[in-house]
Amino acid sequence: MPLRSDWSAELCPIARTLDVVGDPWALLVLRQALSGARRFEEFRSALGIADNVLSRRLRTLVEQGLLERSPYTDSGRTRDEYLLTPAGSDLLPVVHALLLWGEKHRPHDDPAVRMAIVHRGCGQVSRYAEVCSECGEELRPDDVTWRKSWREPQDLPLVGARPQ
């Protein structure tokens, strides 16, 4: 498959956005960051991604302002954690839209395998990506849980960007 074009200067904002998050690995890395992954090993373990591919995606997401590096010390060695920026957190409705579309149009063969968006503010499952379908409040990473039927515990609280 040939490499795609550079869409960063396109007039269309959809094309410019896809220039940053159009790669499936980028969205999966962001999904894991929303789920609380911060360290290289956490991303690698959750995604089963090759080190060189993950390194490139993390570097690109940092360069594009969706993640930021934060150093930490591990066994005397300085390493980086990758934290969501406000721009990265703002992609939550996009990730939710993909979740909802996938549940509707690409359901798992086993009907018991499902994923839902739970608004912690009202405790209800939302059928919408950006606002709670039950109470109308905005869905923010710090007030959303993803309910995954295949996981224990089923509810996974999300994390957003650190306050600026």
TrEMBL record:
InterPro entries documented for this protein: HTH_HxlR (IPR002577), WH-like_DNA-bd_sf (IPR036388), WH_DNA-bd_sf (IPR036390)
Keyword set includes Glycoprotein: no
Limits of the HTH hxlR-type domain: 12-110
Gene Ontology molecular function, alphabetical: DNA binding
SUPFAM superfamilies assigned to the protein according to its UniProt record, in alphabetical order: Winged helix' DNA-binding domain (SSF46785)
Tagged with keyword Transcription regulation: yes
Signal peptide start and end residues: none
Keywords from the named record: DNA-binding, Transcription, Transcription regulation
One Pfam match: HxlR
Protein name per its UniProtKB record: HxlR family transcriptional regulator
Upper taxonomic lineage: Bacteria, Bacillati, Actinomycetota, Actinomycetes, Nakamurellales
